[in-house]
Design goal:
Layout (H helix, E strand, L loop, with lengths): L1 E11 L3 H12 L4 E4 L7 H5 L29 E2 L8 E2 L9 E2 L23 H5 L9 H15 L24 H12 L5 E2 L33 H11 L3 E4 L2 E8 L5 E8 L5 E11 L3 H10 L24 E8 L19 E3 L14 E7 L9 H4 L9 H11 L3 E8 L8 E9 L5 E6 L4 H20 L3 E2 L48 E3 L14 H20 L4
Parallel strand pairs: 1-2, 1-10, 2-7, 4-16, 10-18
Antiparallel strand pairs: 3-5, 6-12, 8-9, 9-10, 11-14, 11-17, 12-13, 13-14, 15-16
């Protein structure tokens, strides 16, 4: 079935990139249709569970398959979705997290919002690895500024060259354990600064500042933190120029005889009917790997290997953030005086990359995220008491131990840059389809010594921090044989690439404006065009690039060039 209406733009996906594209394009007057594979669900409009205690549920807030971060989490999705499998090649460990609701992953994330720095766009020029971006920090900086002003972000101006400052709201004060981390970091010459998160601490565009309930991941009823539905899609709907189609599982991009995109074919998940939507421009923002899947499945006589894939690079050069963690027991935090540990539902300090890789045995850096205190789930007492120090029991002794040890743990997590490699990619599995009959992705994944040496350094650094704090680490130092406890690919949920940008159509999928080399009215507005990972969380760059691409689409449409 096909709708007779032809839209100016069809956007596939409603997360960071899709939401930003909808916001910018509808504000410019375009008539836009948005297709979302999940349901229509606004956390802030009656569904937020941010004030619901875990004990109110028979499950005590426990996780479910579609709520792996807890049953009150703000996002529906997960690594396993019934009827929507993916496969892995022999020897591959990879876990693909997918959201299935309006706004996608923006309904659940740490909201750590970091700009890529000038060096992050020219990695090959610096160390010979990977490829440089066809754009520079200066090309994206104006859109970072616009994103800061529209969405809001707290932080501090530090003047660190490759950690660009933004337009910040005042950051929350460090908590007690974060002050201890800052002291230890200073002694070890590790840079430690206020965190940068997309949570507002001043009123902004009708949204209230954070009131420190500490439940950012549950969907913010006051819209104080960023999610695509609250901050981008709602204003787009208010223009009257946005049509939402939810429960729409996109099958392929459709082309006309002239080789231009004419729209998108999708399956109505409620009825199973095959549908299509017609549009003058198609924007894929389904998430990096889902976008690659759509293109690889869009096969025809002109593009036998998938639409926009004459380069053969769709699905190639994918990356995820490297990650590992260490936690420990800190005696200085024992038997603490009861104090206010309120905050914005996440870290208030973090450590950006502080060293020179030329003096190390790995080429790119990482940043450090911290946790601890009484708000760290599970680690305050029972998560640590089982290992160290001795305690537990029943009655009065148990209560005494809770009062003494609860909140006396610290955790550190590294988030580092992976170098793209030829052995890490996704392709269509020739034997497996999902419940809609759409072929699924098969993943190949390999960490190299670049990443393993980096994670080893993380482990050593975190242990030195805990030791500096007078603490005891809960776990033994892992070995290279067990990968230094590196997280499996996909589990950090920062996957990027698969439709990378470049000036050479033979080696890239889209150009510097995220426009497909092969199909001039087809664009990508998610993490797919990223050339490199950087040691920063990618969402702020996805948002900025989506705004930049949408401005380009608007100009091209007005010029009748597309």
């Amino acid at each position: 079935m096909s709708s007779a209406k032809k839209y100016d733009v069809c956007i596939v996906g409603s997360g960071a990139g899709g939401g930003m594209a909808a916001y910018v394009l509808t504000k410019a007057g375009a008539n836009v249709v948005m297709l979302e594979a999940g349901g229509k669900w606004f956390a802030s409009q009656g569904d937020s569970k941010m004030m619901v205690p875990n004990y109110s549920s028979p499950r005590r807030g426990g996780s479910t398959r579609l709520k792996p971060f807890g049953e009150f989490d703000g996002c529906v999705g997960g690594w396993e979705i019934d009827g929507e499998p993916y496969t892995t090649a022999p020897g591959t460990s990879f876990a693909w997290w997918r959201a299935r609701m309006l706004g996608g992953r923006t309904n659940h994330w740490g909201r750590i919002s970091l700009r890529f720095g000038p060096n992050d766009f020219r990695g090959k020029s610096r160390d010979g690895l990977g490829d440089d971006w066809p754009i520079s920090y200066d090309d994206v900086a104006p859109y970072y500024d616009k994103t800061d002003q529209l969405i809001g972000i707290y932080g501090s101006k530090e003047g660190i060259y490759n950690e660009p400052d933004g337009i910040f709201h005042p950051p929350p004060a460090p908590r007690c354990y974060e002050l201890l981390i800052k002291q230890a970091s200073d002694k070890l010459n590790i840079t430690c600064i206020p965190a940068r998160r997309s949570v507002i601490t001043k009123p902004l565009n009708g949204r209230q500042p954070c009131h420190y309930c500490g439940q950012c991941g549950r969907g913010c009823a006051t819209k104080s933190n960023f999610s695509s539905p609250d901050v981008l899609i709602s204003p787009a709907l208010a223009t009257g120029n946005l049509t939402l189609v939810t429960n729409a599982m996109v099958r392929e991009v459709l082309l006309g005889p002239d080789g231009l995109a004419t729209g998108v074919a999708y399956v109505d998940k409620n009825t199973g009917a095959d549908m299509r939507v017609n549009a003058r421009v198609v924007v894929l923002a389904a998430s990096a790997l889902e976008t690659a899947r759509i293109l690889l499945n869009s096969r025809n006589s002109r593009f036998p290997n998938g639409v926009a894939n004459t380069s053969g690079t769709v699905g190639k050069y994918i990356t995820d953030t490297t990650g590992t963690g260490v936690s420990g027991y800190i005696p200085a935090m024992e038997d603490h005086v009861t104090h206010n540990e309120d905050g914005a539902g996440g870290l208030h300090v973090y450590m950006p990359w502080w060293l020179d890789n030329k003096k190390l045995d790995f080429p790119r850096g990482y940043h450090i995220e911290v946790g601890g205190g009484v708000r760290q789930p599970g680690a305050g007492f029972m998560g640590g008491i089982q290992s160290y120090p001795p305690g537990g029991g029943y009655g009065k002794k148990l209560k005494e131990d809770y009062r003494r040890y609860y909140g006396a743990t610290i955790s550190f997590d590294g988030r580092g840059e992976m170098i793209p490699n030829d052995n890490t990619y996704c392709e269509i599995d020739p034997m497996v389809v999902d419940r809609f009959g759409i072929p699924v992705l098969r993943f190949h994944w390999k960490w190299t010594d670049h990443e393993l040496n980096q994670v080893k350094h993380m482990q050593e650094t975190f242990r030195s921090l805990i030791t500096q704090m007078g603490g005891t680490v809960f776990s033994k130092m892992p070995t290279k044989e067990d990968g230094y406890d590196i997280a499996d690919g996909g589990t950090i949920i920062h996957e990027l690439g698969g439709t990378r940008m470049g000036n050479d159509p033979k080696r890239s999928v889209v150009n510097a404006n995220c426009q497909a080399h092969d199909v001039k009215n087809l664009f990508v507005a998610d993490g797919g065009p990223f050339v490199s990972q950087a040691d920063k969380n990618p969402t702020w760059t996805i948002l900025a690039l989506a705004w930049r691409t949408s401005d380009y689409i608007t100009a091209q449409m007005k010029a009748r060039a597309i």
